[in-house]
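Running log. JK asked me to keep both predictions on one page so they can be read side by side. First protein, sequence followed by its tokens:
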Amino acid sequence: MTATLCALGAIALWATLASLGVALAHVPPFLLTGLALIIGSVPSWPLARRWRVPPATLALGLYGLFGFHFLLFIALRNAPAVEANLVNYVWPLFIVVLAPSLLPGARWRLVHVAAALVGFAGAALAIVGGRGMSGGFAWGYVAAFGSALIWSTYSLLTRRVAHFPTAAIGLFGLVSGALALGCHWLLEPAVQLSPRDWTLLVATGLGPLGAAFFLWDAALKRGDPSRIGILSYLTPLASTLLLVLTSGRQLTGSIVVAAALIVGAAIVGVRAR
């Protein structure tokens, strides 16, 4: 029961990320990424002694945390948020497609190919339902696919580096955040953040970019990983529903079908042996 509650807590926090990103879409993306990641690293500061990782592992952590969150915030800023969020959740399918290339011993099966085709068809439907590539939306959808690609390759490559403790994610976030703030200082105009902006940034950092990782780690260590993993597929559904509620968007048929195709294909593809 404790493991399930931890997993559901992590899922609930991750489900808020897209909605919080939309609420902060007016904040320059490098600044948003940098502040959120640094704030997200705070819960692991008391565990800084566990931050020792090889340079290659640190580089991989920067690639995953910085690249994924920066491109996700770009996507939510430049394309319809509900549809961009659904496209971002094709990352489990990218894991299925790329695993044979990145993990020794992994092989494709017909069910993997079929699941990938169905899932990417769902992403295409989401894009078409979100008014396609018109109005400059193309960059947003490219960023959404990019964030999915980065998170999937990061997830696969973590299996090829030495094991690192969950606390090390705090180091990844802190260094990634500092890098993003440096990019903000060089490339983006200075902005004045309101008290509301700071409140949302703290919520973003301490929630989906902070506590969620520790809750998920606790769930995997205390429960059955296969059962806990099934719960993760609630995240895109909860995230999409929350976006619809907070944005005032109508829950259209194309959104429902696209979500069903993407999530269903991910479940079949990832769980197929």
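And the second, directly underneath as requested:
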Amino acid sequence: MVQRTVFFISDQTGVTAETFGQSLLTQFDGASFNRITIPFVSNREKAEEAVRKINLTAEAEGQRPLVFSTLVHDDLRDMLHEANGLYLDFFDAFLAPLERELGVKSSHTTGRAHGMSANVDAYNFRIEATNYALNNDDGAHIKDYGKADVILVGVSRSGKTPTCLYMAMQYGVFAANYPLTEEEFESGKLPAALDSHRKKLYGLTINSQRLRQIRKERLDGGRYATPQQISFELREAEKLFKKYGVPTIDTTEMSVEEIASTILQHTGLERRFRP
């Protein structure tokens, strides 16, 4: 298997460089990558240090590392171009064609993608939505469901919490979640707090083998991760979803990003901001 070191270089947090690079690297199944992120490369000294690390890696490994960059300033980008790596620059690839098409020069301002100053309202929405998701995790505050945009429902470890947090942080969606337990399965009813917000409910289902794997990693032993208990919970949850007309999504082979995007598409929820 091909093995290469990959550097993600950024003058801010590195999130954009990582996302840009990772989306390309996932296309190469026959390769293994050692990923190194160098954020906040905002001056010549830090750029020189990044170049030094890239060159040392190339010398030690006998092959050029891959370098994904989202540096904005031309002088810093020119320095990285001189490093002994395959330099792949986000702005080189896209800014120049956009400038030609729009007939407008770009500002070359750092921090626009993830900085707070770019859109204070969006930042405040993100914080408020994230706090809501944390405070309404696992049915903690059912009295706050009136404020929810969506309420995710499912058995334990089906992906409710990470999906709620992702929707909050990326889209500003107020997402609560409620875990289905023995109480609901025995009564065959959803609690009144959920029934009164039935239009906001969205069910998460998952393959029994995958759920057992997840539960065993978290808490191996007792009934929690046994095939019998898992099959029972999934079967009863499915009955409740059908009884109350709750739309569902199978999360077995989906990432959190895919789950969140699918729910937004199916429900018609509007993003409060763009990531």
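Observation for JK regarding the second prediction: The longest strand covers residues 2-9.
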